[in-house]
Design goal:
The protein is α/β, with parallel strands linked by helices. It is 43% helix and 19% strand. It is built from 13 helices and nine strands. The longest helix is centred in the C-terminal third of the chain and has 21 residues. Bound molecules: aspartic acid (ASP). The site of aspartic acid (ASP) has 15 residues, from α3, α7 and α8.
Length: 326
């Protein structure tokens, strides 16, 4: 405003040169949300639920684009390198923004430096799951079978760097097992193959597996958190089931590329905060077993701190497990 008054005072032409054409109000067209995994998986599900509601507040659709590959790092690399104008944002998670740097020494982004964090969306428990006719009825039997028959079973995961890969790397490292591991473009497709019995077991985010566990089309041996989940009350914790060392959880969060303007970031965060207060959105997320962050936990600062903590936490664990690629 001061600038505008100053140029009016100095003359009309100067005024136009200094102010330029009016910038239209953000957003004036749809926003792309990159999901770095295949459709139908947990990241995709959470992104669609929250994106739909954010779009209502922003007055423009938030359109999910699935850019899968390399455990989520392909899509996140594309997102990090996109124009920082608020029209490309991404749904990252504990893998893409916590574990990936330890797994890919040549990773093209730094989770702690190359993003403008929008906010945390959901915490998600991790479950050890298996096909329904896996020859074990509980975690102890599962562990015993895995140790005895490592060459007979294969684990399905969403690619090196994904949450499923990272958490099952930790599990196999604790157990001292080395089974075959099959990479998918997301745990949506890997879950389909688990239901069909084409793969044997995996570690997955609760939001992906609740309905299949409830329907009995797959088995869940344990949830790796301190408490049972309210939506899967019959599934014991790893502590109850005899493997207390395996404690791990994951999260999903929205990021924009670094240097996204502050006013745009404020709108994006505001829309996310509001979406997480919306009754129907909350119900959908809670029914899938998500833990919705409180107001303080939804701030960009809280997400930045979480990313830094996660990178520091996962780097030694994954290096010790010898999981690094290239
Ligand atoms: N979140 C899953 C994983 O990292 C992948 C997915 O969302 O499909 O294992």
């Amino acid at each position: 405003m001061t600038r505008l008054l100053a140029c009016i005072a100095t003359g009309f032409l100067t005024c136009f040169a200094a102010v330029g054409p009016a910038r239209s109000e953000y957003p004036d067209r749809p926003i792309t949300m990159i999901v770095p995994f295949a459709a139908g998986g947990p990241t995709d599900t959470v992104a669609r639920i929250v994106g739909e509601q954010m779009g209502k507040t922003l007055g423009q659709a938030v359109v999910v684009e699935n850019v899968s590959g390399a455990g989520g790092t392909t899509g996140i690399t594309r997102g990090a390198q996109s124009k920082p104008d608020g029209y490309t944002i991404m749904m990252g998670h504990m893998g893409t923004h916590g574990a990936a740097p330890a797994l890919y020494p040549t990773l093209k982004y730094d989770p702690t430096k190359d993003f403008a964090p929008v906010g945390l969306v959901a915490g998600t428990a991790i479950l050890i799951i298996a096909k329904k006719d896996f020859p074990a009825t509980n975690l102890k039997e599962f562990v015993a079978y895995l140790k005895k028959n490592p060459d007979k079973v294969n684990e399905a995961h969403a690619g090196v760097g994904s949450v499923s890969f990272t958490t099952c790397t930790m599990l196999q490292s604790i157990l001292g097992t080395k089974t075959a591991r099959v990479a998918y473009r997301g745990t949506g497709p890997s879950l389909n193959d688990l239901v069909a019995g084409q793969v044997d077991f995996g570690c997955d985010q609760i939001v992906n597996v609740v309905s299949q566990v409830q329907a009995g089309t797959i088995k869940a041996f344990a949830v790796a958190s301190p408490q049972r989940s309210a939506v899967l009350k019959d599934v014991p914790t790893t502590k109850e089931a005899g493997l207390p060392e395996f404690q791990v959880s994951a999260w999903n969060a929205v990021f924009a590329p670094k240097d996204t303007p502050k006013d745009v970031m404020a709108k994006l965060n505001g829309a996310l905060v509001k979406a997480l207060d919306d009754g129907a959105t909350r119900t959908r997320l809670l029914e899938l077993g998500s833990i919705i962050p409180d107001r303080a936990g939804r701030s960009p600062e809280a997400l930045q701190a979480l990313v830094e903590k996660e990178v520091a936490r996962w780097t030694p664990i994954l290096k010790a497990a010898g999981a690094t690629v290239n």
